[in-house]
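Severity: low
Component: inverse-folding endpoint
Summary: output formatting inconsistent between runs
Steps to reproduce: submit the following structure tokens with default settings.
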């Protein structure tokens, strides 16, 4: 067993001390992953059962990542290290765009006002548009990970509670995302929380995450994405904690 820290610990002023304390208390090895390491192992997890070379979209609370595989001959030193361990060599961008961050920046009303929703969409379009050309050429499927896409997949499937095996590799169409964006935009946080499959803490940020997803599909010219339950944890289990 080991402990891996991600963006929250990278950004926290006491992140390293916190993780070292946990490591000592539990007697386990630990490391705060770099952004590239986090992207690499998330991509590796997705690739466990996704054929080809997918484009991975990870909408988190504070940031959104786009991750693609690249050829080994273009690898930088960190990527070469990953490749030597059997991991995919990836190119990733992390945008200052996330479900929680967008909610804090733009959504003041409940239900939200039209101009607040427009603000989320405009920011998402601007930031995603700034990296669009780097990812348009990816021929593989677009794969979505994390809470926004898995929750929408559960709602789309009509499940009354979360069942990961039923949504893993389920396609989520742009039409479905558009419909949920419209529906959620008219609901209060309490009404969203009453929907099946919406886990505690997700209700207040599900709309903004959905708006980011909707905009990503538009900017990337995609009509659907595959939902994946596999991500960073699967990659770390497969390849182990980096040195």
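Observed output (run 2 of 3):
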């Amino acid at each position: 067993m080991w402990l891996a820290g991600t963006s929250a610990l990278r950004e926290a002023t006491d992140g390293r001390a916190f993780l070292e304390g946990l490591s000592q208390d539990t007697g386990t090895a630990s490391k705060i992953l770099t952004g590239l390491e986090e992207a690499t192992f998330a991509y590796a997890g997705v690739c466990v059962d996704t054929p080809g070379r997918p484009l991975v979209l990870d909408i988190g609370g504070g940031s959104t990542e786009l991750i693609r595989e690249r050829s080994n001959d273009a690898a930088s030193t960190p990527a070469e290290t990953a490749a030597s361990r059997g991991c995919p060599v990836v190119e990733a961008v992390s945008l200052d765009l996330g479900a929680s961050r967008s909610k804090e920046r733009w959504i003041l009303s409940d239900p939200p006002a039209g101009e607040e929703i427009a603000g989320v969409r405009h920011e998402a379009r601007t930031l995603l548009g700034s990296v669009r050309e780097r990812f348009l050429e990816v021929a593989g499927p677009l794969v979505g990970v994390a809470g926004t896409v898995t929750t929408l997949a559960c709602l789309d499937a009509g499940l009354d509670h979360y069942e990961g095996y039923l949504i893993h590799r389920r396609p989520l169409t742009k039409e479905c995302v558009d419909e949920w964006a419209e529906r959620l935009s008219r609901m209060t946080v309490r009404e969203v929380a009453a929907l099946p499959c919406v886990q505690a803490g997700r209700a207040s940020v599900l709309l903004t995450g959905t708006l980011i997803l909707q905009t990503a599909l538009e900017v990337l010219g995609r009509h659907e994405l595959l939902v994946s339950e596999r991500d960073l944890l699967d990659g770390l289990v497969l390849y182990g904690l980096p040195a």
